[in-house]
Design a protein that fits this description.
Helix content is about 55%, strand content about 0%. It is an all-alpha fold. The chain has one domain. α3 packs across α6.
């Protein structure tokens, strides 16, 4: 059986329930729990030994944007668009609240990759894998 909807849903009729909290079992929330942010931030800060120039984006935003891009296998532009549309991804990159705008220009993804380099990205991945392995070993 099929019942045809009364009419096309208007954008004004669509309700958001953002008064609720993010679900703790979401994959991005779970991954955020295991990443050693303080260590990554400390290592990242060493790349900026003086107070000259424009303030860089936080390491969490930069590294996690790269993680999102690789995990979802998307272009830089699509990655930034997905972050803009998804409160879980915004939480993952370190936002304290949902914002309905792009967090940064997609061209910054190139800078993020250069800043971390392959060695830095590999080191972050290794940290995450070691923590996941330790957590898994603890539950056995």
């Amino acid at each position: 059986m099929y019942k045809k909807p009364d009419d096309q849903l208007s954008i004004d009729d669509f309700m958001l329930s953002f008064e609720e909290k993010l679900r703790a079992d979401n994959r991005w929330v779970q991954m955020a729990k295991i990443i050693p942010w303080e260590r990554i931030e400390n290592d990242h800060a060493k790349l900026f030994p003086n107070n000259i120039g424009q303030v860089a984006k936080p390491a969490r935003m930069a590294s996690d944007s790269l993680i999102i891009k690789e995990k979802l296998k998307q272009s830089d532009e699509e990655t930034v668009q997905q972050i803009a549309e998804n409160p879980f991804l915004q939480y993952f990159i370190g936002f304290k609240e949902y914002k309905q705008e792009q967090p940064f220009d997609p061209s910054l993804m190139v800078r993020f990759r250069k800043r971390f380099g392959l060695d830095g990205i590999s080191a972050i991945n290794e940290l995450i894998m070691n923590i996941e392995k330790e957590d898994h070993d603890d539950t056995d």
